[in-house]
Design goal:
- The chain has about 210 residues and is mostly helical.
- It has twelve helices and no strands.
- Helix 1 packs across helix 3, helix 1 packs parallel to helix 11 and helix 8 packs antiparallel against helix 9.
- The longest helix has 20 residues.
- The model has no long low-confidence stretch (mean pLDDT about 85).
Length: about 210
Amino acid sequence: AEYMGYWVAAEICLAPELKRRIGIMKQMVAIANEFYAHQNYNGLMAVISGLNLASVQRLRRSWDGMPNKTMATLHQLEEVLSPKSNYANYRLTVKQLPALPFFGLLLKDLTFTNDGNTKRLESSANPNLINFDKWRRISVAIADVVRYQASHWDFPRDDAVIAYAEGCLTGVAVDESSLYKYSLLCEPRNQAEYDPNARLIEKWASAAS
């Protein structure tokens, strides 16, 4: 999910033309909506995380060019994965199979249950009593993971798409600091420096020299 988030940001920040950048952002929201439609919540979180990186969020001209309908869709998707009330909306949504859960929350729940509960009932008169409630909670969480593994989608295999996706994710070698520099080249803080006709590669080469 982290690699996918950086891929989302890289696709946007490495697009020098404003119109193309807006088009890519619209496409990312469409991809996120498809993830939601097929209950791929891990993919959905990855795209939303990428769109919310500082390097992307600061691109005001790009965001201002987004259609209202697309922005409404994005806000609805963000609400599904809102961390409010311990991801209450998401927990109510991810019930039916097939589904790919948000792995980060699964790990968080397991860690919280393990670290937040003692192995034995230390407050009991008998300190050797096993805390069965802790292990029951952990077993329920693991059973959920196993249940999700039974998910199956009837998508026809497309080797070209698979190769493209693998190339995108394995080819992301841009960190957050570099993405922010590219973002500043796309839309500088100083409005006087903004030249929509300048090629990003030329500006980047000039900045690096």
